[in-house]
Amino acid sequence: MEEQQNQERRPDIHSEVVRAGKRTYFFDVKTTRNGQPYLTITESKRRFLNDEGKFVYEKHKIFLYREDFEKFVKGLDGAIRYIELDHDFDEVEKNSASKETDESHLNIEFEDLEDEKPLDKE
Length: 122
Prior knowledge:
The protein is of the alpha+beta class. It has one domain (2-98): Nuclear Transport Factor 2, Chain: A (Roll), CATH 3.10.450.700. The protein has four helices and four strands. It has helices at residues 2-8, 69-84, 89-98, 110-116, and strands spanning 14-20, 23-31, 37-49, 54-65. The chain has a four-stranded antiparallel β-sheet with strand order 1-2-3-4, with no helix packed on it. The longest helix is centred in the middle third of the chain and has 16 residues, at 69-84. Residues 1-7 have low confidence and may be disordered.
């Protein structure tokens, strides 16, 4: 029983922590049951619940597998480069509100993604 619990909770191989204002980002390298490395990216944000009078932490996680690293980095790099070009985002906001944009490329169903690759990573 104890051996099974130890196998289910695999320790992090490597961790990086980035504190950024109210948010903290955790980059944790772990391995699947068959020994393949993957990355979890966790955003943790501290929030105060007025009605309960206490602090809570909201957490959001992304699991990124080795075979997706290159595509992920390419997409992230493209988005960062776009922002760094110092576009006038106030103007972009006005334009998007005043005219209808084609967002068909954003219409992704999760069921479509499931067909792409089996989810037997862990």
